[in-house]
Amino acid sequence: MTPSVLGRDFRLLWSAAVSSRFGDALRTPALALLAATVTRDPRVIAAVTVAGQVPPLLFGLLGGVYADRWDRRRTMALVDGVRAAVVAALAVVVALNQVSVLVLLVAAFVLAALGTLFDSASFALLPALVPPDALPRANGRLQAGSAVAGGFLGAPAAGVLFAVAPAVPFAVDAVTFAAAALLVLALSPPAAAGGPGTARPRGAVWSEIGAGLRWLRAHRTLWRVTLLAAASNLAISGIMAVLVLYALEVLRVPPAGYGLFAAAAILGGVAGALGAARLAVSLGTVAALRAVLAAQTVALTGFALARHPVPGGIALAVFAAGTVVWNSLSASYGQRHVPSELLGRVGAAQRMVGLLTAPLGAALAGLAAAAYGTVPVAGAAAGTFALVTLVAWRTLRPAAPAVLSRSGAA
C-alpha cells in the first residue's frame, strides 16, 4: 500500500512544532540557570520548576474546551504570539538586570498555562491536515523532529547562549515562538483543511469538560489504554527522577560523559518515532501497544540489572524508543477515532490522567532512593512495567471497541 502524502499543511505544522520545541529547549534550562543566579535556595529554584508543571493540572481540561470551541489554527497562532511577547519581555527584564524570583515564577506559570491550550489545539488540528492512515507517520515525524530540535540542538545550545549573555536564550526563544505563529497562520483555512474548530452548540464550560470525560470513560479500550498510560507514567517519572544518580553511582558513568549517556535516550526516541508507523501497519495498533509494553519491560529490567554505561545506555535507548512509539500510536489512535468536536477535550482528559501519576512517581522515587538507594527504584520501576504489561495483555484486545491514548490504528 502506497503511504499517503503528508502535504504542505503538515510540513508547515511540523516546522512550527520543531521551531517552538527548539525555543522551549533553550528556555527551560536557561530559566533554571537564571534562577540560580538570583538565589541559591534550592526550595526557590525548585519552585520555578513546579510553577511550570502546575498549569497543565489546573488548566488542562479547560484548554481542551477552548480548543474545541475556537478555530484551532488561529488559537495556536495567537497562543504562540502571546508566548513570544512574554518571553521577549522576560529577555528585556534579564538584559536590564531586573530579574526577581517573582518574575521567574510568573513567567514559568504563564508560559506553561498558555502551552496547555496550544497542546490541545495542536492535537485536535492534526487530523484535519493529514489522511487518517497517515496519522501514525505524522505523529512520529513530529516527535522525531521535536526530539532532535530539543535534545540535540536546543538543550546543548542553552548553556552556550546563556554564557554569552543571560538574555540571549530568551530572545531566541521569542523569535522561535513568533516564527511558529507565522507558520501556523500559513496553514489552509479551516474549510479547506477539513473544518477544525467548526461551529457547534456550546454549553457551560464544566458541562463541556464533563462531556469529554464521559466520552473517554465510556469507551472501554480507550479508557483502559489511558489507565495503562497513567500506571506506566508512574514508573517513568520515578526512574527519571533518579536517573542522574543511578547513572553516576550505579552505572559508573563519568560526570563528563553524562551528556553522551543521556543522548542515548534521545537517539532511541528518534528511532522509535520514525518506526512507529511501520509497527502499527505490521501488527495493528492494539497489538503494537501490547508489544511495546513488553519490550519496555525487558529494557527496563536490563537497565535495572546493568552495572556498566554501555549496556545501561542501550537499555535506556530501547526503553525511550518504546515510550515514543507508545505516545505516537496513542495520539494517532485517538485522533482517528474521537469525534472532531471532542478531540480537544478528550485529548486533554487523557493528558490529565497521565500527569496525575507523574509527581507521585517522582516523589516516591526520591523517598525510596534516600532510604534504600537508587537500585531498588530501578527494580520497582521494572516491576511496575511488568504488571502493566500483564494487565495490557489481558485487557487490550485488537477486536475490542477502539478509541484514543497510548495507541494508533486498530
Automatic annotation (TrEMBL):
Pfam family, one: MFS_1
Molecular function GO terms recorded: transmembrane transporter activity
Protein localization: Cell membrane
Regions that span the bilayer: 44-65, 77-96, 102-126, 147-168, 174-193, 222-248, 260-281, 288-306, 312-331, 352-372, 378-396
UniProt keyword annotation of Iron present: no
Superkingdom classification of source: Bacteria
UniProt keyword list: Cell membrane, Membrane, Transmembrane, Transmembrane helix
A single Gene Ontology CC term: plasma membrane
Membrane topology: Multi-pass membrane protein
Name of the protein this chain belongs to: MFS-type transporter involved in bile tolerance (Atg22 family)
Organism annotation: Micromonospora violae
